[in-house]
Design brief:
110 residues; mainly alpha; 54% helix; 0% strand
Length: 110
């Protein structure tokens, strides 16, 4: 399978010698306005691609804040008149449960 690639009759050598004789006669100058377009593209602001999660995250944060403020406003009276409230000036005693939670669970298992 090893063929002598240095043989002048080998297709690769004939292709190489033909490629060496061809001259490039094309114009190598840039087209009119190319520099202007290049400068405009360089200074143009890129539009950034954002994901749907990133786009909706600020809206979700705003809605969560509005819901928090609405829940505080709806329960404002409970804050004022609740037990141990700092606004009433009267401290109420904390009540302890009469039965132990562990004993209730163990009673249910029987």
């Amino acid at each position: 399978m090893n063929r002598n690639t240095h043989d002048p009759r080998h297709p690769w050598m004939r292709l190489n010698s033909a490629a060496r004789t061809v001259r490039d006669t094309r114009d190598s100058s840039a087209p009119y306005g190319f520099a202007t377009r290049l400068a405009a593209l360089a200074f143009a602001t890129e539009t950034r691609m954002v994901s749907a999660v990133e786009r909706l995250s600020l809206r979700a944060l705003g809605i969560a804040c509005l819901l928090a403020v609405a829940s505080v406003a709806a329960n404002y009276q409970a804050f004022l008149s609740g037990p141990g409230s700092a606004f009433t000036g009267v401290e109420e005693l904390e009540t302890t449960p009469v039965t132990d939670a562990v004993s209730v669970v163990l009673d249910l298992a029987d």
